Amino acid sequence: MRPDHTSGENLSCTHLRRLPVSVVGSLCHVFRSLDQDERAGGVPYLLGIFEASFGARAPYFLSLFYQRGELAFRTSILLGMSPLANCFAAALALRSDARQTFQRGAVEASLARRGAPTILFAPVVFFFLPDSPGSAKLLNEDAQTHAVERLQTRDHTAKHRIQWQQLFAGLTDYRNVVHTLIHFMCNYSFAGLSNLLPTIVQGLGYSSINAQGLTAPVYFASFLLCVTAALVSDRWGRRGFIVAAAASVRCIGYLLLATVEDNPHVRYLGVWLAVCGIFPALCINITWLLNNNSSESKRGAGLAVLATFGQCSSFLSSAVFPKEDAPHYSKGCAIGCGFAGAIIILSPGTLFPPSSHQQEEGRLAWSRGR
């Protein structure tokens, strides 16, 4: 009998799945057309809502196509685009004149550049991105069957509708709560340090433009480490120790930034360590949550909790990095160091002892995923 090829189709909500991608670009262009007072209205909030929807949906979507031993690398490419984009932005800043940076219309032009690609690419996503392996138009029937069968060791629940019992299990599973806490503490650095990094580097004695340029290699190294950590994690089959290692690097970096104020070389080393520890931990933690939830409904619920509450640390980071603390931001960096230390404590795999059934299922999934 041919396997059920509707895996994830109803859960994906074919048209709603594509909505956040195109709406983000449209909102960028709407935001561009507004004046300063109008921008204080609802458009920024809508932009945040749809960006958050895309951020939660994309890793879940990848989990519909790849086994657990293949997922971290794909997720690292997805999330690694953030430091890579920052790298290109910092490199481009070196080619810009400082006076042009603050010219009238610079913000509008930036929003137009950000919004246009998503609008142009939205039709490609709408018409060519499949909802599941069983509905991929580029595969023939035999290939679709094989693509569905290779995922059966992971999810044995019905896929044509939401499994409410599994959904509530995902909302109450303590492991998902721990993953959410780890994401909260990772996102604190992502939202805070990433935005203030040029200011911190500028405080080392560089001009604004040169400070932007000096962040480029840091972000590029972070992208490479994110992908490398994912490959090691997929190959080794361990998530917690990779998260702990990345958090340790970040903890040392934040400690240097919080305690050293008069040595620019040591502070720049702290910048490297702090940034390079953010994205590997962020990527592996999300992949780890997807691996720990076998059914699609439970996986989606767990990721929704992580994306909703885990992102709230952005509010905290905006409060503990006040302008008067520039350029050292000792208080914010000290909190980041504490969060990184907490991740080291939470992340070891002994915190999540699997049952014998989960161990056997995981062993089969890892072996078939290679």
UniProtKB/TrEMBL annotation:
Source organism of the structure: Exophiala dermatitidis (Black yeast-like fungus)
Domain of life: Eukaryota
UniProt-recorded Gene Ontology molecular function terms: transmembrane transporter activity
Keywords from the named record: Membrane, Transmembrane, Transmembrane helix, Transport
Pfam families given in the database record: MFS_1 (PF07690)
Transport among keywords: yes
Transmembrane segments annotated in the record for this chain: 71-94, 214-233, 240-257, 269-290
Keyword Membrane: yes
Compartments where located: Membrane
Gene3D superfamilies assigned: MFS general substrate transporter like domains
Gene Ontology cellular component annotations, sorted alphabetically: membrane
Topology versus the membrane: Multi-pass membrane protein
PROSITE patterns tied to this protein: SUGAR_TRANSPORT_1
Database matches in SUPFAM superfamilies: MFS general substrate transporter
Protein name from the UniProt record: Retrograde regulation protein 2
UniProt-listed InterPro entries: MFS (IPR011701), MFS_trans_sf (IPR036259), Sugar_transporter_CS (IPR005829)
Chief place of localization: membrane
